[in-house]
Structure formats: structure tokens, C-alpha cells
Amino acid sequence: MSRIGHDDSFLYTSLATYPGKKLVVLLGDGRHRLGLLRSFDQFASIVLEGACERVIVGDLYCDIPLGLNIIRGENVVLIGEMDMEKEELPSHMTAVSTVEIKRAQKAERDATYLKGSMKNIMEFLGID
Amino acid sequence: MLFFSYFKDLVGREVTVELKNDLAIRGTLHSVDQYLNIKLENTRVVDQDKYPHMLSVRNCFIRGSVVRYVPLPPEEVDIELLHDATRREARGG
Q1: What pLDDT digit, counting tens, does each position of B45-79 carry?
Q2: Contact B66 A78 (CB under 8 A)
Q3: Three-class SS string for B32-55?
Q4: For residue B38, what is the nearest residue in chain A, using CA coordinates?
């Protein structure tokens, strides 16, 4: 965020247009939060009301409600304004419960780990 | 300040911003600030299927610290101008 009036005051980037809007926030660890922006600061730290974490694994998704959050700016990657008239998610995706999505996440993590360890074994043995 | 000025001149152009998390977003450059935070309009994600979260997002704010590249077509970049500006900054700084 820039200080208004500093340098060219007619051109500045600010989160001032976002309070009250429903937003998607991408975080540095790859997570997605949705919520209403209530406040922000010069470091892009934000206050998100009615926040929920949207977990997507393949074609499954789940919104885990989180309530009121303050997110430190250094973790913020992107803040996107959701167009309420557009589809939030592709139609082929299905909503599942928290338990199911956590299971799917674990399965995905295990599969990645297994792939990684197999690769290490192959490399060690010199197999292409 | 050099790239802040450079991006100010690019406002209104269609650019692609590639982030450090490999996400690439195409959109019209709406504004930029001293931290090189970028605001894009009419955004669409390159490789939309990989990032279903962003389907309904049409404009966004990108924190400057997470940008990896802003690829530009070489014919649209006045490299001599940039080179001169850099020399001037180096002398003045």
C-alpha cells in the first residue's frame, strides 16, 4: 500500500476498495481463505470476518468456518475480489464434510510422500 | 523507484504476473505502488483447471513480495530507456 499524496498521488494501489467485499485470500503456505474484508494496513495485513478455509483436493472441496481472523501481511500472497455473479467453483466439484476432506488430504500427502521415497530409492540404485 | 515509474507507464496494458508459488495471472494492470504491489483487473488464471479457487475472481491485489516475474514482449520494452534510467539512478544514488 502506498502513502496517499506521496509521489504521484493520482496513482496508488490500495486495499481501500475492498472493505465489505467477499474476498479470496491466498496465503503463503498454499491455503485459501474466503471472507469479508474489514480492515487492512500498509503491510497488507488484513482482518477477515466470517472467514472460512476452502480446502480443495481433486474434485472434492470443503469450507471450514473460522470466524474472525487477523492475517499478518507477510503471509498474504494475493487478495482477489469474488464476482458474486460468477460461479465460485467448477460445477464438477462436490462438497464434502471436514472429516472426508481431511482424509483426502492425508491420502494425497501419503501418495506424494510415497512417490518421493520411491524416487529416492530408484536414484540410489541408479535405476532410471 | 525506477521500476515503480516503469510500471506506472505500463498501467492499462495487459500483463501476465507469475508468482513465486507458480501461479500465473493475466490481467490489465490497474495500478502499482512503491512496494511494487500490483492490482490487476479482468483477471484470468493461466491454467485455470489447476486453480479452481480463483474461478470467480475478476480483479485482485497482488503483494509485491510474492511476484517472481512480469514477462513482457521484447518489442514493447524500450531497453535503451531503461538502461539510461538505471545509469541516472546509479549516478544520483
Answers
A1: 988 888 888 888 889 999 999 999 999 888 888 89
A2: yes
A3: ECCCCCEEEEEEEECCHHHCHHHC
A4: A13
Helix (H) or strand (E) holding A33: strand A32-40
Strand A32-40 and strand A46-57: the pairing is antiparallel
pLDDT in tens, B78-91: 899 899 999 998 88
Q: List, in order of start, the domains of chain A with CATH numbers.
A: 14-95 (2.30.30.100)
- The whole-angstrom separation of Cα B83 and Cα B8 is 17
Contact A51, A33 (CB under 8 A): yes
Q: What is the pTM of this model?
A: 0.83
ipTM surpassing 0.95: no
CATH number for the domain harbouring residue B56:
2.30.30.100
Beta strands in B1-93 (DSSP E): 14-19, 24-32, 38-45, 57-62, 67-69
> Domain of B25?
2-92
* Residue partners of A2: CB distance under 8 A and separation at least 6: A12, A13, A14, B33, B34, B35, B37
Chain A residue with the nearest C-alpha to that of B45: A80
CB distance A23 to A48 below 8 Å: yes
> Number of folded domains in chain B?
1
**B12 has a chain A CB within 8 A of its CB:** no
Task: Tell me whether strands A94-95 and A60-71 are parallel, antiparallel or unpaired.
Answer: parallel
Task: Say which of B8, B59, B63 has its CB closest to residue A77.
Answer: B63
Answer yes or no: do B62 and A77 touch at CB < 8 A.
yes
- The answer, for B33 touching chain A at a CB cutoff of 8 Å, is yes
